Amino acid sequence: QDDALAPPTEPAPPLSTAGRRFERKDTEQYHVCLGGVGLSRHDDRRFALRVLDTIFGGTTSSRLFQEVRERRGLAYAVYSFTSAYRDTGQVGLYIGTRGENLVEAFAIVGTELARLREQAATPEELDRAKENLKGRVVLSLESTGARMNRLGSEVLAQAPLLSLDEVVERIDAVSLEDLEALVDELWAPERLSAAGIGPDDERFEEAMSAVVAAEVLH
């Protein structure tokens, strides 16, 4: 029953500064994430964020995947992601690659972040991303278990339960201006933290410097 649910809590204050952490480990590859605070399940902009993620790095046709893996072969695994919770959320990207490719791969990340701020999407990218996202939403609800998980997660987050038609309508309503505003807020350089695992912390620091340099020089 409704009265069995915990009352909503006040959102945690956002992190004021970005951080950086590296753990040395004798691994064949480096595993690095770059990201920051995202949007909660109660934020109507979450639909625009999912469209933006689809364009930036959420699919095999995305900018990050095409530039880092397909065109240059610098990493086997590269993608961006978003997560939304009751009070907050996260945006981020991940690259798993060998040490000799790490710096160049993150230089491309820096270039793509700068490009994202210059032009979050072309009209064609926006249309493709919307259709892709709507298709994935429909497919994700095909099984009874998936629908059950969706209901449960929305109840636990105390978020409004939208029908499939309402979700599609929200996705269709996303504009280029919506994406640009999110990029400026969520992917601003000063908001991004970095975490990595690998054999050499100096290589990790060099890769993070390459992100900054690529953004400045772009």
What does this structure look like?
With 218 residues, this protein is α+β, with helices and mostly antiparallel strands. The protein has one domain (22-217): Cytochrome Bc1 Complex, Chain A, domain 1 (2-Layer Sandwich), CATH 3.30.830. Helix content is 49%, strand content 17%. The chain has helices at residues 46-56, 63-70, 99-118, 123-140, 144-156, 164-172, 176-186, 201-217; strands at residues 20-24, 30-37, 77-84, 89-97, 193-198. The protein has a 5-stranded mixed β-sheet with strand order 1-5-2-4-3, covered by helices on one side. The longest helix is centred in the middle third of the chain and has 20 residues, at 99-118. The N and C termini lie far apart (55 Å).
Q: Show unreliable segments.
A: none
Biggest sheet, spatial arrangement of strands = 1-5-2-4-3
The average pLDDT is 89
Largest sheet: 5 strands, mixed
Radius of gyration: 18 Å
Helix content: 40-55%
Whole-number total of structural domains: 1
CATH class equals: Alpha Beta
CATH architectural arrangement: 2-Layer Sandwich
Principal-axis shape equals globular
The helix-and-strand class reads alpha+beta
* Element order: H for helix, E for strand: EEHHEEHHHHHEH
Number of helices: 8
Tally of strands: 5
Q: CATH homologous superfamily, by name?
A: Metalloenzyme, LuxS/M16 peptidase-like
Q: Beta fraction of the residues?
A: 15-25%
